[in-house]
Amino acid sequence: MKDLNQAAQPIHEAITQNQEKLEIDYISQIKNVEELDQTELQQTLTKEFERVQKREIAEGVTKVGPHRDDLRFLVNGFDVATFGSQGQQRTTALAVKLAEIDLMKQQTGEYPVLLLDDVLSELDASRQTHLLKAMQNKVQTFITTPSLSDVAKQLIEDPKILMSKMEHLKKMNEC
């Protein structure tokens, strides 16, 4: 979580031109989880699994585990899911996605391919520009959009434009 937080913050700040500060909180069912070392966490989870096992079996639902934990995204101290605009929510999700890509590059030595489905429509022109700058010359990206007018063409070096119509793809010569 610390790595993701550290990677996402500068990306988010770049996209928002330092107008917003992103924090990611890990919300766990285990109290003080961040203070536990791996052995203590394993012991705590084992005790919790044993404590609820019969109830889980009877109800057919898991009650304990990291899959029940959550992430909270704060922008300027406010929960973006509750108080953020659609643009802020989209910006937060994209900053986290780009941070994940950077972390993958650190782990594997290679960038993954990035697929973005209609991400520009809910962003204002400034956020679009700074998002595309954050990705520029970094990672191979496929962006879908219903309109090319959403794309800041000057920020995309040598784009390959494909138009999908009636299940057929057609290569376009220009943006």
From TrEMBL:
The keyword Transcription regulation does not apply. GO terms for molecular function: ATP binding; single-stranded DNA binding. GO terms for cellular component: cytoplasm. It comes from the Bacteria. GO terms for biological process: DNA replication; DNA synthesis involved in DNA repair; double-strand break repair; SOS response. InterPro entries: DNA-binding_RecF (IPR001238), DNA-binding_RecF_CS (IPR018078), P-loop_NTPase (IPR027417), RecF_2 (IPR042174). PROSITE patterns: RECF_2. The keyword Nucleotide-binding applies. It is found in: Cytoplasm. Coiled coil: none annotated. Keywords: ATP-binding, Cytoplasm, DNA damage, DNA repair, DNA replication, DNA-binding, Nucleotide-binding, SOS response. Belongs to the RecF family. The RecF protein is involved in DNA metabolism; it is required for DNA replication and normal SOS inducibility. RecF binds preferentially to single-stranded, linear DNA. It also seems to bind ATP. This is DNA replication and repair protein RecF. It comes from Weissella viridescens (Lactobacillus viridescens). The gene is recF_1.
